[in-house]
Amino acid sequence: MSETEIIAELNEQFGSGNKELEADVVAELRSIMRLHQLSVEDLFFKWESYCIKMDIDAAQTSIDTLRHFKQDLHDTLERNSRSHVKIKTEKGISATPRAPRVSGGDVFGMLDSLTTPGAGRASKAGVRRTPAVTRVKAEPASSPVKLEDQLNSMGAIPPSSFNDRPNAGDTVEILNDQLPAAEPPIAPFSESRIKLTAASDQKKLGYKPLAMKVSESSEILDDRIDDFVTLVMQHHKLEESAFGSAASQSTSEIVAVGRIASDSSEGKLNTASLVLETSRRMGGGLRVPLNVSKLKGYQFFPGQIVALKGVNSNGHEFTIHQILELPLLPNAASTPDSLNAHIQRLRGGPDAMDSDSDPAPLNVIFASGPYTADDNLDFEPLKALCNEAADIYVDALVLTGPFIDMEHPLIASGDFDLPEEFLSSVDPDTATMSTVFKYLISPALNRLASANPNITILLIPSVRDVLDKHVSWPQDAFPRRELGLPKAAKIIGNPMTLSMNEIVLGISSQDVLFELRHEELVGGRPQEPRLLERACRYLVEQRHYFPLFPPADRRKLPKTGKGDGVGPGAVLDVGYLKLGEMVNVRPDVLVVPSSLPPFAKVVESVLVINPGYLSKRRGAGTYAKMTVYPPDLSKQEQTGGMLAHKIFERARVEITRV
User: Fold this and answer.
1) With contact defined as beta carbons under 8 Å apart, do 15 and 21 qualify?
2) What are phi and psi of 119, to 5 degrees?
3) What is the mean pLDDT of residues 557-567?
4) Please, which pLDDT band fits residue 131 given cuts at 50, 70 and 90?
5) What is the tens place of the pLDDT at every residue in 347-356?
6) Count of H helices and E strands in the chain?
7) Do you know which InterPro entries this protein is assigned to (predicted)?
8) How much is the average pLDDT of 26-34?
9) What is the percentage of the chain residues whose pLDDT exceeds 70?
10) Residue 255 burial (10 A CB sphere; 0-12, 13-18, 19+)
11) How far apart are CA 552 and CA 341, in angstroms?
């Protein structure tokens, strides 16, 4: 690649809108690339990770910030080099042909080690207006991939065994650390303390995939815009005459509702390619360029439904004067009688001996696949998680796919053997992937169900699950026949909104946060300057589990272990995207696994949890443990006879290394 092409790519990745990078900024970026032998894409991944760690805007690329970034990479390189040399000295491990596992050797490892500012600070107990987040045991950001070659020359190879993993059981982050950690019960509860109620219509997820019609897809996209026109009209108390087509020339200020899009099929969204796509009813389906010069700040992504106040005086572009706020779904609420019933269930039912005492809090563990490293099919992280769930007698274990990952190198090649203890009962010639699931995954879940008979286990598929014949998203549940699952396990769709007692839980296994972060356009002083909170707010504001359209180019997604490393991507079935909408109310808890650093945050009264992946490609990952305390009904304010759940105030969430 020539120098001119490299500079052009740097401007595309690091530039803000259509403004090119300054010469000294380009020189500093080229210096970092040469020093650490990085491609532009790898450099951008590390820059984004550094910005997330330091809680700064990745679009604001200054020479001072880049120098701090360069020093951080250098410090991490030295720190990792010293730590791995120490491993060799203490354990006497000699070099082997196997490639060393280095935290940060790829995009996944890189993101695993990030933290936010204020790491390790203890927060004072007491009443808080907003939930407190504590980062525990902060670690440095990742080092360049070329560090592996350096470690090879030293002969220092970190332990490859899962049992020798570092920092096992360490807590990475705590939300609401003023709430005490729950004490595990002495014995499992005599009956299930969870009542499940589905809000999503799972039968509709059983549609026929790979049968998309352009006309139906177009109508779905149009209807979404028209639905938001009605919402904006009611929320802002506007007359229908206030709305118009952004594509029509006029000197009068109007409100235009449409979908953010790019007029270029390649490259990242920028101010030069930014257009508003109208519906056929409101604007004849036309696209019009947007002028953002009069805005103090903005945050856009492809597929975002927006309401813009402005004028198209020349007939060529729509100048935005104001971005109108979109109405949010109402908060989840229940009647006092319903909440009392759930509290009684936590005590053990109406016949509980100590019916007046405070019940033990509800404990739920969230984890996401993959569940085994790239070099084996031992599923050791899943077994360790099930052992932990059995030891503390959790009420529910929520697992999102992929369970058997089609991108796993061994699964993709078909070159693997079942454990010897199962060969006597399995004919290798007739074995299927259901057989693999039955003998490699189900035993851990069955042992958990035996240790805690009244546990609730939820399994949510992924578009990367080799078991699921429903290959598109929204996605139907895979059949449980021949999987050998315990009765406590339930397989639900992707996405799914359901109630766990009073808790409205929304789950999707799609990595929408990474794609939103990669595709968004941010300028000036955005409404939400923090990166992770902004991505979460998009979901709540757009009322959808995957509001991005079109999805990101799958070549830009984190690499997988199979072949060229390009995964399947989002695999959207546009004709059924309405099934990906949130149902009736904002979820109390929104679980969205992502390759971004794991976190638990509160956004617009929604507790958003990214548990991370339970297994990285070459090492152990993280999971989330949520402890929800029962509501104090005496202190709750009623609204129309209903009590808001306010789970974000009474839930303690711990992000933990497996």
Assistant:
1) yes
2) -65, 140
3) 85
4) low
5) 875 555 455 6
6) 17, 26
7) DNA_pol_a/d/e_bsu, DNA_pol_alpha_bsu, OB_DPOA2
8) 86
9) 84
10) buried
11) 45
Question: Hunting for tokens 């199962």 — which residue is that?
Answer: 422
- Tell me which residue of 461, 476, 485, 490 sits closest to 402, measured CA to CA: 461
146's tokens: 């070329």
Give the pLDDT confidence score for residue 424 in this predicted structure: 74
Q: What is the rounded CA–CA span in Å between residue 318 and residue 249?
A: 9
Q: Return all residues near 83 (Cβ < 8 A) that are at least 6 apart.
A: none
Tokens 């525990």 sit on residue = 136
Higher pLDDT, residue 168 or 322 = 322
State pTM to two decimals: 0.78
| pLDDT tens, position by position, 53-63 | 776 767 677 88
Mean pLDDT of the residues in the chain: 84
pLDDT over threshold 90, residue 388: yes
DSSP 492-542: --BSEEEEETTEEEEE--S-HHHHHHHH-EEEES-S--SHHHHHHHHHHHH
Q: What single-letter DSSP state applies at residue 565?
A: -
**Quick one: tokens of 434?**
């259901």
Q: How far is CA 78 from CA 84, 141, 149, 292, 561, in A?
A: 10, 12, 14, 44, 27
Closest by Cα among 43, 93, 87, 95 to 69: 43
- Which tokens is 29 given? 């970026």
**Of 295, 379, 354, which is closest to residue 615 (Cα–Cα)?**
379
**What angle is formed at CA 409 by the lines to CA 404 and CA 412, rounded to 5 degrees?**
65
